[in-house]
Amino acid sequence: MSFPWANEYKPQNAVTKWVDERLPLPRLVYNAVGAGYPVPRNLNYFWNFGVLAGVALVIQIVTGIVLAMHYYASVDGAFNSVEHIMRDVNAGWFIRYAHMNGASFFFIVVYIHIFRGLFYGSYKAPREMIWLLGVVIFLLMMATAFMGYVLPWGQMSFWGAQVITGFFSAIPLVGEPLRQLLLGGFAPDQAALNRFFSLHYLLPFVIAGVIILHIWALHIPGSSNPTGVSVKSEQDTVPFHPYYTAKDGFGLGIFLIAFVAITFFAPNLLGHPDNYIQANPLSTPAHIVPEWYFLPFYAILKAFTVNFAIPFTGIVLIEAKLMGVLAMFGSILLLFFLPWLDTSPVRSGHYRPLFRKFFWYGLIPSIVVLTYCGAQPPYTQWVVLSQIAAAYYFAHFLIILPIVSRIERPLPLPNSITEAVTGKPLQTATA
Amino acid sequence: MVRLIAFLVGVFFSGMLLIGLGDTIIGAIKEPAVPTAEHEFHKMPLAEKFPHDGPFGKYDKGQLQRGLKVYSEVCSACHSLNLVSFRDFAALGYNEDQVKAIAKGWKTEVPSINPETGEPATRPGIPADRIPSPFPNEVAARAANNNALPPDLSLITKARANGPAYVYSLLIGYEDAQPAELLKKFPDAKTPDGLHYNPYFANLNIAMAAPLTADDQVTYDDGTKATKAQMAKDVAAFLTWTAEPKMENRKSAGWAALGFLLIFTVLTWMSYKSIWADKKH
Amino acid sequence: MATVKKTTGTSKAPRKKSAEASAELTAPTATATVEEGEGVRRRDFIHIAAVSFAGVGAVAVAIPLVSQMSASADVLALASIEVDVAAIQPGQAIKTSWRKQPVFIRNLTPSEIDEANKVDAGSLRDPQTLAERTQPGKENWLITLGVCTHLGCVPLGAAAGEVKGEYGGYFCPCHGSHYDTAARIRKGPAPLNLTVPEYTFISDTVVKIG
């Protein structure tokens, strides 16, 4: 690997030696998440969330495969098959609630993981590829979660599918044909339900594949750390196992306590009551809202209320609806360009006084406001708030970050991770 | 180049949002939102407590049995309970023979076919049957109810925010006449003929006539006084059970899991601390 | 128990690693040596306990994930059926379905009963008398599963005109098993007689299976 002092895998006996010479899988694991992977010694608890995201994916795949043994994707039977799971299948209620809340916890963990990366500059050279793959995983997760939410074929499932595929109809010329292609009809129906089920089963395995690339890319430069200072010597690192396996074990315990508390004591807290009503194509719920993890994006969609037109002529260049859709996708896609928008050579927000102010007093509040407004009915006060917050969101990434990187004077960086941790300079002339 | 394009895109999106902001504010000043009767007179459900509330809450079987009686004698005339089977009533504390008797004596029979002729027919229920619907299909249900569809009640307490309290409040919330204040302020919001004023219903006017009209409408087997509030509360509890029959298993499994995880977390914490004991970080 | 033993072996490695690492790096070597002995044993115990707990937890979660595959409550609820047999004449049989499996209900003629009773039960592959396979006073009602005990095909012989095999009972066409008039295996690969399900006559003409 990239660190010369990394521990080398030594097969303990004849059998592991035999395997190692033919298929060095144990060696791969040893070097990836074992004692063979040197990790900065100063990682804080925010670095637990990558492993937790992996655990959440495993929870989703395991419970999902089991649910698929009882679920049937039919517009007449889907809703009842979910209720059959809840009522008659042995421990079905547990498996279904775990899957339902597992999706929410997957997003909670991944959002914290993303904000960790945003604050500590984990997207910066030489880790751009890790970040790009992470954004791909995030997009795949959103697609998977959306299609999964359609499967119970409740009212929110149906109208969510109607609204989200409606985004595509905003595209000029090809929009309506494209929507019909995606749905296999004029409205969500049997064809759409079947393909959503198929893809909902497929995509998690694609996510698992991209996660392998994400971890592969991580092991080229090694993990980032809260100081943002690169690893300089063996003293700066500890082997992943046992140091971080132990810490991740503890983090897992805390995560599972939170997960179990919600799954067993408030399983419907994060869901919407309307999804316990069977889909009815003739009656829209009073108030369509997506799952909580999509709310900021939904608020951005709704925040665009005026057409882009040439003043005083009435010629519309881009309709508000299309602009909302573009902005919603844009709000995620801009993350792909983040490594080249933030040009500051300092990674960690700890040493960037100006960046830190915009992060804590600008970006985080704007996303909180967008999440809240996304769930509100279209009353003036919520529209106004989400327009301010959305304007800030785009300005933050596209305008403020490049300027801040240019004008900011970073605080002095520690000479090494070890110095930051122990207060003593790095001991030279060891090893 | 990337930063230049990003800057332009950022100015465009943020600019359009700020223009939209101005537009929204001007619009709100020019045409302020018109208050509606629903907005001002709709009431949130009463804060009614149930024995099954909270992480330790358990169903009161006596209450569920009373609720079943209210459902079967009052609600079931119009509302189906499609997801519940007679056999599920064993969870209310009935033994096998009692469940059989309930199934056999249910006032709607189970659709079937005549084994001789193949004509549609009905037969008495057996425990394995789902509760039969009062109407054969949606058209019949609407035809018998002034074109309103009585919703299936199996999941009603999960399909409404704060469901148990909502059902209770709705059942006792009927008012004979609309408040005078409402009619003064919104003369157009008069309850249409055939609908009934109920402030707990989302649009204030519900098609269902008050189903619980008098005390002792149902005679309870356990001697409980059947006041309107008591019947409403019992049937709300019963419908909580129909929506979430596994609630007690869920809570007890949850405590076992939490206890286990607490020990696990303490152990991993000690393990973590001991491994890192000699490492400053 | 097995888990605990197994982890003892593996958990030594991390302890040694961390001790090594500490010696190499900043921690004072003196305290590291003092900690050898009692302290180390206690620490080992914690790691073993934590890993064992994780193992127990994984097994506890695996139980519902596997048990969901067994029959659900609605399937079990249909585990018994009631059949009216009044219309079955002697010599006739009907096929009905119980637990999603075919059931043969056969009204034996006196000659079929005699034929079954003539055979010495001790000489059979699966020794049983007709009386053991029917209910007292109802010896003419032979009720069996229509599932061949060889590999699960449905034998012929219940419906009018079907081949009844060399012994006048049932014949399984898949691999050529012949059953006699008491549905006992007489020839062919099947190891056992056709299964008699649990049943009771709840009236003269109504039988409850299961």
Automatic annotation (TrEMBL), chain A:
It is found in: Membrane. Keywords: Electron transport, Heme, Iron, Membrane, Metal-binding, Respiratory chain, Transmembrane, Transmembrane helix, Transport. Heme b b562 binds at H99, H200. A ubiquinone binds at H219. PROSITE patterns: CYTB_CTER, CYTB_NTER. It holds the Pfam family Cytochrome_B. Residues 15-227 form the Cytochrome b/b6 N-terminal region profile domain. One of its GO terms (biological process) is respiratory electron transport chain. InterPro entries: Cyt_b/b6_C, Cyt_b/b6_C_sf, Cyt_b/b6_N, Cytb/b6-like_sf, Cytochrome_b, Cytochrome_b_C_euk/bac, Cytochrome_b_N_euk/bac, Di-haem_cyt_TM. GO terms for molecular function: metal ion binding; oxidoreductase activity; quinol-cytochrome-c reductase activity. Component of the ubiquinol-cytochrome c reductase complex (complex III or cytochrome b-c1 complex), which is a respiratory chain that generates an electrochemical potential coupled to ATP synthesis. Belongs to the cytochrome b family. This is Cytochrome b. It comes from Sphingorhabdus contaminans.
UniProtKB/TrEMBL annotation, chain B:
One of its GO terms (cellular component) is membrane. It comes from the Bacteria. Its cofactor is heme c. It is found in: Membrane. Heme c binds at C75, C78, H79, M208. The chain crosses the membrane at residues 253-272. InterPro entries: Cyt_c-like_dom, Cyt_c-like_dom_sf, Cyt_c1. Binds 1 heme c group covalently per subunit. The keyword Nucleotidyltransferase does not apply. One of its GO terms (molecular function) is electron transfer activity. This is Cytochrome c1.
TrEMBL record, chain C:
Residues 1-34 are annotated as: Disordered. Keywords: 2Fe-2S, Cell membrane, Disulfide bond, Electron transport, Iron, Iron-sulfur, Membrane, Metal-binding, Translocase, Transmembrane, Transmembrane helix, Transport. It catalyses: a quinol + 2 Fe(III)-[cytochrome c](out) = a quinone + 2 Fe(II)-[cytochrome c](out) + 2 H(+)(out). GO terms for cellular component: plasma membrane. It is a single-pass membrane protein. It holds the Pfam family Rieske. Binds 1 [2Fe-2S] cluster per subunit. Its EC number is 7.1.1.8. Its cofactor is [2Fe-2S] cluster. The chain crosses the membrane at residues 45-66. Residues 1-11 have a biased composition (Polar residues). NCBIfam families: Rieske_proteo (TIGR01416). The main subunits of complex b-c1 are: cytochrome b, cytochrome c1 and the Rieske protein. The Rieske protein is a high potential 2Fe-2S protein. This is Ubiquinol-cytochrome c reductase iron-sulfur subunit. It comes from Sphingorhabdus contaminans.
